[in-house]
Amino acid sequence: QVQLVESGGGLVQAGGSLRLSCVASGRTFSSITISWFRQAPGKEREFVTAISRIVDTTYYADSVKGRFTISRDNAERTLYLQINSPEPEDTGVYSCAARRSGYSSTWNSYDYWGQGTQVTVSS
Questions:
Q1: CB within 8 A of 1, min separation 6: which ones?
Q2: Which of 7, 74, 91, 118 has the highest local Cβ count within 10 Å?
Q3: Whole-number Å distance between alpha carbons of 111 and 69
Q4: DSSP label of 78
């Protein structure tokens, strides 16, 4: 079992910055692939970014490349999402998710989910 708790969401102006955190407990943190997904009102959940287990390869949705950075601190069992130059289209509930196997951008392939944190970007 893995428990995930996100924090760091809030209201940010377009062009600003924000950092989200996701603290994990349970299974060995370094052995899981962990990702961020987001869901805007009236839209489907979408993949944002992932960092693979063990080798820490990172993956990004095209819409956030160059603006978002994912990282993990295995000692602190924490996943981070640095959001730079956010745009109103980035508004949504951001959730971290974990899976026991390798990278996937498909939300329903993930085994564990946090409760989500709201990010609102004002123009």
A1: 26, 27, 112
A2: 91
A3: 23
A4: E
68: closest CA among 80, 83, 58? 83
Cα distances from 86 to residues 5, 28, 121, in angstroms, run 22, 32, 7
What helix, strand, coil percent values describe the chain, rounded to 5? 5, 55, 40
> What residues form DSSP beta bridges with 25?
3
> In the block, which residue shows the tokens 């079992």?
1
Question: How far is the C-alpha of 15 from the C-alpha of 105, rounded, in Å?
Answer: 26
Q: Hey, what amino acid is at 106? A: T
Please, what sign has the CA dihedral across residues 113, 111, 3, 77? negative
Q: Are strands 17-26 and 78-84 parallel, antiparallel or unpaired?
A: antiparallel
C-alpha separations of 95 from 55, 113, 116, 123 in Å: 22, 7, 4, 23
